[in-house]
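Checklist before submission:
- one chain only
- standard amino acids only
- sequence pasted in full

Submission:
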Amino acid sequence: MEDSICPLVLVVDDEPSVREVFGVMLTHLGYTPLLASNGEEGVDVLRTRAGRVAVALLDVQMPGMDGPATMDALHTLEPDLPCVFVSGETGLYTSAALIARGGFSVLAKPVFLKELRRVFALVTNEADFMGAHKPFFSAD
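Returned file contents:
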């Protein structure tokens, strides 16, 4: 059940166990996760919650619409939606290329709760311990 007080986070990952873990982590951090199994589903979820999603958490490597293509589609609906990429393997993409394309940050799997908390604090302006916005990389 969505709690209107908690910021909504769209999680798009093709692995059910990864989606579930991110859901638990985000709930623990005070967010309401919206889980999608692929890019197309993620776009549909965002469409139904226009203007209410605080950030998208996107796997880079997915069948069909990969993470960067998903971000592009999400940005056609909400150009300013921050997108955080997560991946065990970014494939043809480098972290720098994902940031240059419009990603907010890139986190390497496994993602630890402390990393997720720090990046989401930056995304949602809950903390300013890094000064002005600078892309955050956990690994390349």
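Reviewer check: The first helix runs from residue 16 to 28.
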